[in-house]
Write the structure tokens for this entry.
Amino acid sequence: MGIKFDGTNVKNGSRVVANMKRSNELREGSSSGGKALGNIKRNNEIREGSSSGGKALCNIKDGKNIRLGSSSGGRTQIKLSDAAKAIGTSSQGPSTAAVWWFFAR
């Protein structure tokens, strides 16, 4: 069974492996106190950990593609619509990019 994202929880089968209970942080497990994997900060950038100073992993500045780093000219990894399909969601925002980056790439 693959990864599914319902907008709040990331599930692998019936087990919750991560959550986005706080709208801008992806955390391990089902608790809002779990370890922060990444966060969504300014300009739709996905950053490491919970800090806005964390390393920029990817971004969706153009709204269509998930790109490496913080630059809108970064190398395209996948179309946002294809990433949404890969994680079983219809959402195409920064939370989709974060879940895809950590669980489906």
